[in-house]
Structures are given as C-alpha cells and as structure tokens.
Amino acid sequence: MRKIKIVLLHLLCFVVLTALSQVGGVLWLFSLFLSIKLKKKKRYVFPIVYLIFNVLIIPPIANQLGRKKLPVFQRQLQPKNLFYPLLFRNYVDEDLEMVLKMSSSKLFKKDIGITYLDANFPFLDGFPLLPHRSHDDGKKIDISFMYLDDKGKSTNKKPSISGYGVYVNETNITTNNCLKKGYWQYDFPKYLTFGTINMLKLDEIKTRSIIEEFLSHRKTEKIFIEPYIKQNLNLNSNKIRFHGCKAVRHDDHIHLQTK
C-alpha cells in the first residue's frame, strides 16, 4: 500500500508539473532517477536539476526548434515576476520576439517598459498553456497595462501579484452580457490575482502608446482588449478585436498575437 501511495504521489507531481510548465514533469522523473543513482534526497536534486535546465539547457534546444526565450532581467522588456520564466512560460516564436524587442526599444525611450505575463511553452505547437484557450504556438503573449499611482504619476507597478484579475472597470456591458449568456468563466481571472497589492488607475496615455506601437508592426495579426477599453482609448484599428465570450475578459491585460 505504501509503494502504491508513493507511485501515485510521483504521478500527481508529474501531471501537475507538466500542466504548469510543460517540461517540469519530465524533470521530476529525471531528478527521481538521479536521486536514486546518487543516493541523494529528491528535495535537493530536483531544484538543482530544474534550474540548470531552465537557465542552461532548455533555452538553446527551444531556440533550435523555433522558440525564443524572452529576457528576464531587462527593464525595457521583463516578466511581471519570476513565476513566468521559472515555469517556462516566456517563450515566443521569432516574429513575436522581433515585435516585442523592437517595440520595447522604442517605448523605453518614452519611459515605458513592457511587462509581459503568460507567453508560450518552449516546445510543441498545440500543447495547452493552461488556463488559456490559445498560447500554444509561440505567437501569443499577454502584456500588462500601464498604470497611475494615487498621486497620478505613471508607474510600472501592477495591481495584482500575478498581473491578472484586477479589472479597469469591474462592471461593464460586455462582461454582463457574457455572464448572462452563461459563460461563467468569463470573469474567472479575478480568482487568479494571487493577491491585490496596489490600488492603481489605468494610464490611458501610455497604455495607448503600447498598443499603437504593436499595431505599427506588419507581423501583428490581432490584439484583444475589452470593447470599452478600445473605445476609451480612442483606438480604431480593425486589428483590435473582441475575443468572444468563450474566452475570459481582457480589461486587465493586452493579448498580442502575431501572424
């Protein structure tokens, strides 16, 4: 019975780590093998193996297969927190990398830094990056809005720990309509904040600048934001679209997608 429980526990770890990071489950099994061979405890072996693969091994392999790892410690283009790169969620294809690097370089001259959230996993088109419906081909990424602090000064801080779930307007027509139609998941990101840490207001000028910069690139295919955000920012491009009620609301981030 004890052996069965141990096997089930390892299986659970494999499934959870695979769902969260794509390669974490394989690294768990590899660490288990090493810990047995080296006669070392898994709690020491796994973190070391995981970090070595995260920093040194996975990025060049993914690069050869067409996925590029986004920078982690770069002010002009950086993750909301280390959660995203540690879980291998900061990979994009060459076209999206180009759009992001060119955009971040131009925007940084205007004192605007791009903060990214979920992008894609390093391998395999079609492998789901939960809880997203897409983000499975290297062509999608979520970008944080820019905000103003309580003094009206632009800040690179974000309202929540995850970067998701704190909406510009809690109630709006699109959200109400989707919820009335039975799409309960539309409002679900509010449970994924991991904590609200800052009371901030949307910086309309700088958020508009980010979106306009993305729109200026030929490789940009579409951008998802809530219809009322598009209207409030006076954006008219047909590349800015409503994502539909089957997705989740987009008044807490920008969804950027390349061709």
Gist of the model:
With 259 residues, the protein is an alpha+beta fold.
The CATH architecture category of the largest domain equals 2-Layer Sandwich
> How would you sum up the global shape?
globular
Cα separation of the termini: 52 Å
Structure annotation, total helices: 8
Low-confidence stretches: none
What is the averaged pLDDT score? 95
Biggest pleated sheet: 4 strands, mixed
**Proportion of residues in helical segments:** 25-40%
Radius of gyration: 20 Å
How many individual β-strands? 11
Strand order of the largest sheet: 5-11-9-10
What's the structural domain tally? Answer: 2
- Provide the CATH topology of the largest domain: Muramoyl-pentapeptide Carboxypeptidase, domain 2
Helix and strand run:
HHHEEHEHEEEEHEHEHEE
Indicate the proportion of strand residues.
5-15%
Instruction: Return the structural class.
Output: alpha+beta
CATH class wording of the largest domain = Alpha Beta
Task: Give keywords.
3-stranded antiparallel sheet, 8 helices, 4-stranded mixed sheet, 259 residues, single chain, Muramoyl-pentapeptide Carboxypeptidase, domain 2, alpha+beta, 2 domains, 11 strands
Can you walk through the features of this model?
The structure is a single chain. By secondary structure, the protein is of the alpha+beta class. The protein folds into two domains: 2-64, no CATH class; 71-258, Muramoyl-pentapeptide Carboxypeptidase, domain 2 (2-Layer Sandwich). Helix content is 40%, strand content 12%. The chain contains eight helices and eleven strands. The protein has helices at residues 2-21, 24-38, 42-64, 83-86, 94-108, 173-180, 204-215, 227-232, and strands at residues 68-69, 77-79, 91-92, 114-116, 140-143, 147-148, 154-155, 201-202, 220-224, 240-241, 254-258. The chain has a four-stranded mixed beta sheet with strand order 5-11-9-10, with helices on one face. Strands 7-6-8 form a three-stranded antiparallel beta sheet. Strands 1-3 form a two-stranded antiparallel ribbon. A hairpin with a 5-residue loop joins strand 6 and strand 7. Helix 2 (24-38) packs across helix 3 (42-64). The longest helix is centred in the first third of the chain and has 23 residues, at 42-64. The chain is globular, with a radius of gyration of 20 Å. The termini are far apart. The relative contact order is 0.12. The model has no long low-confidence stretch (mean pLDDT 95).
